[in-house]
Protein: NAD(P)-binding protein
Organism: Paraphaeosphaeria sporulosa
Amino acid sequence: MAPRKLQIAAAGLGRMGHRHALNFLNRAPRAQLVAAFSPDSKEHEWAREHLEPHGVTLYTDYDEMLKQEGLDAVVIGTATSVHAEEAIKAMQKNLHVLCEKPLSTSVDVCRQVVEEAKKRPHLKVMCGFSRRFDDSYQSAYGKIEQGQIGRPTILRSQTCDKHDPSGFFVEYAAWSGGVFVDMSVHDIDLTLWFFGNQIVPKSISAHGCIAVQPGLAQHKDVDNAVGIVEFWGGQIAYYYCSRMMAHGQEDVTEVIGTEGKLSVNLNPQINLVQTYSGKGITKEVPAHYYGRFEMAFVKEANDFAAACLDDTPLPMPIENAVKAVQIGSWLQEALVTKRQIHFDQSGKRLGKANL
Amino acid sequence: MAPRKLQIAAAGLGRMGHRHALNFLNRAPRAQLVAAFSPDSKEHEWAREHLEPHGVTLYTDYDEMLKQEGLDAVVIGTATSVHAEEAIKAMQKNLHVLCEKPLSTSVDVCRQVVEEAKKRPHLKVMCGFSRRFDDSYQSAYGKIEQGQIGRPTILRSQTCDKHDPSGFFVEYAAWSGGVFVDMSVHDIDLTLWFFGNQIVPKSISAHGCIAVQPGLAQHKDVDNAVGIVEFWGGQIAYYYCSRMMAHGQEDVTEVIGTEGKLSVNLNPQINLVQTYSGKGITKEVPAHYYGRFEMAFVKEANDFAAACLDDTPLPMPIENAVKAVQIGSWLQEALVTKRQIHFDQSGKRLGKANL
Amino acid sequence: MAPRKLQIAAAGLGRMGHRHALNFLNRAPRAQLVAAFSPDSKEHEWAREHLEPHGVTLYTDYDEMLKQEGLDAVVIGTATSVHAEEAIKAMQKNLHVLCEKPLSTSVDVCRQVVEEAKKRPHLKVMCGFSRRFDDSYQSAYGKIEQGQIGRPTILRSQTCDKHDPSGFFVEYAAWSGGVFVDMSVHDIDLTLWFFGNQIVPKSISAHGCIAVQPGLAQHKDVDNAVGIVEFWGGQIAYYYCSRMMAHGQEDVTEVIGTEGKLSVNLNPQINLVQTYSGKGITKEVPAHYYGRFEMAFVKEANDFAAACLDDTPLPMPIENAVKAVQIGSWLQEALVTKRQIHFDQSGKRLGKANL
Amino acid sequence: MAPRKLQIAAAGLGRMGHRHALNFLNRAPRAQLVAAFSPDSKEHEWAREHLEPHGVTLYTDYDEMLKQEGLDAVVIGTATSVHAEEAIKAMQKNLHVLCEKPLSTSVDVCRQVVEEAKKRPHLKVMCGFSRRFDDSYQSAYGKIEQGQIGRPTILRSQTCDKHDPSGFFVEYAAWSGGVFVDMSVHDIDLTLWFFGNQIVPKSISAHGCIAVQPGLAQHKDVDNAVGIVEFWGGQIAYYYCSRMMAHGQEDVTEVIGTEGKLSVNLNPQINLVQTYSGKGITKEVPAHYYGRFEMAFVKEANDFAAACLDDTPLPMPIENAVKAVQIGSWLQEALVTKRQIHFDQSGKRLGKANL
C-alpha cells in the first residue's frame, strides 16, 4: 500500500505563499497539497490554473479551509500581520504548522504562538528560517560541530537585497518591523544556530542611514544598517543589511573561531559560468532571495513533511523564532533611539527601554 | 480534472538507472513512474522498498514490462550493451524513449536506433546528455546565441573523474568503448551544441597514458587522454579526460570566440562554503558526476516529460548522439593507432581506417 | 650629470624600520640611503652587514645623525613612543619626514607634529599609511572617483592578523594604544580616503572580546573588536580587527555605493597557485602584513622621494593621520567604556568623555 | 668598502629591451647598468633621457659597446634574429649573457650559442624564460618537488595574448618562428622544468586555425593553435596558444599528478579589486604579458646578477633553451604539415621530416 502522505493546506498564495504551495505540490514527494486559501482574487485566478487541476481545493476563507477533512498540516505564507493568528487557529484544529518567518513583528505576539505550541507538544510547529535548510549552511554547521574552527567567536552576516526602485520597500516598511526584524532576523537565527540557542546578549549597538529610499524616513526605517550584538559568553555577532545592492542578492556569512574560519557565499554567483570580455571576467549574481535559496525552501518542505510523518524533531525549536525577532527588535530600537542597550547575565535588560 | 501525466517505465535500476527512476517518481510532477524493470535481484530488493509502495509495478523481464497497459514512455538506464535493443523494442511498442548515454559504443548500432526513430517521428527519442539540461551550460549557450563572444572558435572541455582505486574502472573498460567514447562523449556533445550540429571534422589527433590503473592496458584503454578535433569551418575542440583526480569530479568547459570567452565550472565546488585554516582557504569539490549534475538530471526528466506530453521538440536531435559517439570512436582510434585521422569537406574519411 | 637623489636617513631598524631602510637603499632609484640610526646593538650588527658596505653611515644617536651633512629627509621606523619627537626634531633640521604610522597613540602628541609641519609648508611630512600606495586600493579609489559606484555610502574594512601564540601581542598591547588605534587605524584612513577627508563623525559604537590572548585584559585590550562609525553625511563605516586568524593576514575592504560596490582582497592569496587534493582546492594566504603590502611600501618610498625632489603634493594631508588616530581612540574608548559616543555636526563631542 | 656590482650593458632598447635596461638600472641593486646599445634613433632618444643621466654610456654599434672597459655582462633584448650572434660575440669578450628568449627561431643557430657557452663554463649564459622567476611558478615547482601531487603526469599550459587589431602580429609572424616557437615555448620550458629536463618526446600532434588575423596565412602561421606532446616516460603536455583574447593576457598552467594537481593563474587578475554592478561581479585582467610577469623579470635580473657575482648555478641549463625551441619547432611543423611526428626512445625522430 502506498505510504501515507502529509495532507497539507497552503494559506496565502502571494510572493512566498505560492512558492510554498508549489513546492508542497510538486517537490515534496511525501506531502500532498490538498487545499489552498487566499483572500486575493488574483491569487485565486492563479490557483485555479496551477493548483485546482491537481486536486487542490481552493478557499477564500481561512477558517473554512481548516475544516477540510483529513488535513494534517498548514503552511502559512500570508501577510506577516496574520501569521500568528492563523498559526494558533491551525494548532487549535490539531494541525502541524510551517509558518513563513517571522511569526510576528511583535515579540509578544510571537510568544503567544509559542505558548500555544507548548500546549500541544505532539504538533510540529516551525517558523521557516530557510537558511537552516541550505546545503552550504548545513555543511558549515557540520564543520563547526566537528570542531574544525575551534570555538566560534565572531559571526559576520549580511542580508543584502538588490535595489528595487519601484517604491515597494517603502510601502513594505510600514509593517515590516524594520530592516533588522525583516532582514537581519535570518542572520540572527544563524547566530543562534552557530553560537548555540542559549547565548545571552550582553549589549547591542546599531546605526543606519537612508541612501536611496528617502520615503523610509516616515516609517523610521533605513535602507542600510549595521548592528553589533555582544554576548555574555564572549562572542560577538555583527550584521549588515541593505536594500541597495546594484548587483543582486548578496547574503554572506562568516564564522570565525579560535582555530579557523568558515565563510558561506562570500562570492555570490547565479551559476558556474564566467564571461570574459574587454571589461574583464564577470560572474552574475542572483537577483533575488529565492534565486539564492530556492533549494533550501524545497528541502524545508521535505524536512517538515518528514518530521510530521515520522514524528522526528524539527531542526530548530520554535522558541528560537521568538528570540531572533526579539534581538532584531532590540537592534531596531538601538538604531532608532541611537543608544546602546545592555543586559545582565540572565538576559534581563538593564535600564529602561528607550522607546 | 487532473492533467494527464506521462506514464513512464524505468529499465535498469543500477547506478544511473535508480536515479532516473527516483527522479521520475519524485521530482517530475508531470510524469508518473508506473513500472520498473531490472534483471538484478539486489536491485529488485531495493525497488520493493523504494518503488513498489508508490504504485510502481516491478518486472524481471523487459519485454513483459513493455506490455503493461497505459505506458507512454521508457527511461533506459541499463547496461550500455542493451541500450539500443531496448530502445528499439520500446519504439516498436510505440513508446517514447529516454535512453542513458551512449546508445551504444558501436556507431553502427547507434545508427539502428536512429533509423528506427526516423520511422516514428511522432515519438520522442532522446539520448540523455545531461549537460544539455544544466543551468550553467544553458546559460552559456544563451550567451553564445546572443553573440556575446562573437563566433565560437575554440572549445576546451574536460571530463575528469575522481580516482577510484577499487579497480572498478579497469573492469568497466572491457566494454566502455574507451575513455573518449565513455567520458569525452559529453564534451563532444557540447561541441556539437556550441559549434552547431552540422560541423564537419577535418582532422583528429589523440594521445593517452596509463598513470594509475595499469590493468587498463589489457583493454587498450588509458586513464588520461588528450585529443584534438579540427573542423572544416575553422573551429578546434580539444578534450582532456582522466580518471585520476585526487580532489573529485572536475568537468570544465571553455568556449573562446572571436570577441569573448565563456567558462563553465572552472572552479569546481560542492557548495558555497570556504574553510580557512593554517593550510589556507579551501573549497571542497563534488566527488562524483552526479554531485555536479544532479539538478540537470532532474531537469532532463521534467523536460522529457513535457516534450512527450506537449509534443514539443527535444533539445537535441537523436542523430547527434550518433555523431558524438562517432567522433569519440575516432579519437579512441587515433589514440590506439597513434595516427592522425583526416576527412574531406563532406566528412568522408581520407585514407583507410587504421584498425 | 646624474640627477640629484634624495639623501635620506633611516631611524630605527626593527621590524618595519629595516624594511624602510632596505627599500630606500635598493628599491627607490631616486633616493639614496646615506645614514641609519638605531639604539639597538643587534640592529647595528645587522646594519653593519647590510647597510654600511653600501655607504650608509651608522649612528647610535638620533640627534647626531640629523647633523650629517647633505641630508634631505628622514624615514622614521622606531618605536611609536618616539615617532613624534623624532619627526619634530627632523623638521626643525629642515628635513622632509616619512614617519611610520601612527605619529603617536596620543591625539595631542599627533597634533604637535602637525603644528610643527604647518610652520614649514615647504617640507614634505607624511605618516605612512601604506594602503594608500597599494595598487588595488589605488584602483578602487580611481573607480570611485569615476563614479562607478555612485555615492560611496557604506564601508566595511577589516585588519586581521594571523594568531601569534608567542605572547608578543600581549606585551605590545601595553603601549599600542589598543586594537582600534593600532590596527583599525588603517581602515579608518581608507575611510577618510574613500569618503573624503572632511567627513564628520556623528556617533561611534564598539564591542570587543578576548578569545585567545587572556593576558590582554591587563592592558584593557582585546583580540577581536568590531566598531561602527556613523558620519553626518549619512555614511557608515564599520570595522573588524582581530589577532586570531588561523590562516594568515586577511585585510579586506568593501565600499558600497548607491550604484555599485567594490571589494579589495575579499579572497586573500599569497600567489596565483591553487592546490588540489583530497581535501579540495586550496589557496594559501600571506602570513603577515608585509606579505600583503610589500609592494605598497616600495611604492611609498618612491612616491615620497618623488614628492620631495619635485615638490609635488603628497597623497594625503598630515592632518589625516591625526584624524585617523582620533577616530581610533574614540572607538577604543567606546569599546572600553561600553558606551556609544555622539558628536554634533561640527564634530564637537556631545556629553563628557567617558574615560 | 662597497661590494662590487655587476657592470652590465643592455643591447636593444625596444619593447622588452628597455624594460631589461630599466630593471638593471633601478631594480637590481647588485647590478649597475653602465652601457646601452641600440641601432634605432628613437630608442636612442629615449635612452638619452632615461639612461644617460644615470651614467649609462650609449652606443649605436654593438661591437663598440662590448669594448667598454670593466664590463661584466650583457643583457640582450634586441630583435630575435641577432640574439645568437650578439650572445656569441659577448661570450667571446668573456662576458656573462642574459639573452631574451628565444636564442633563435632556428634550432641550429641555438645550438651554436650553446656550443660557445660550453667552451666557457665560467660564464653565466642564460636564456630568459621569465616564468622560471615568477613567484607562483616557483611555489608550484616547490610543491611538486615536495611530492604534493605525486608523480607529475599531465601538463596543460596556455599562452594567450589579448587580441591586437593593429596588424602587428601579422608582420611579426614573418620572422617569429610561428606561434608554437614564439608563444608556447614558455609552456614547453615549464614542461621541462616540471617534468624534468631529461624527458624525451615520443609523439607530437598539432592543429591550428586563423580566426581573426587572415594575414597570417601568408606566413603559414595561425592565431589559435593546440598541440600535444607525449613523452616516453608516460607524461603528456598539451598547449594552447592564441592571439585572440578579448579580455587580456591569460597564461594558465595546470600540472596533474598521480596524487594531486596544481594550477597557476587559473583566474587571471590585474589586482585584488572586484567591481559589483548590474552586470555582476567583475575582475579585470592584465592587458599584456608584462602586466602578468613584471616582477618575474625583476627577479630574473636580480638572480642573474647574483649568479654572476657569486658564481652560483643558474636556475636552468642553457641546453633547455634549445630543447624548448626544438619542441616548439616540431609542434609548428606538425601544425603546418598536418602530420603527427614520432620519436624513438632515444629521442631520434622516426620517418623523415615533413618539411
Q: What stands out?
A: Chain B touches chain A through 34 residues (CB under 8 Å). Residues 289-310 of chain B form the longest helix (22 residues).
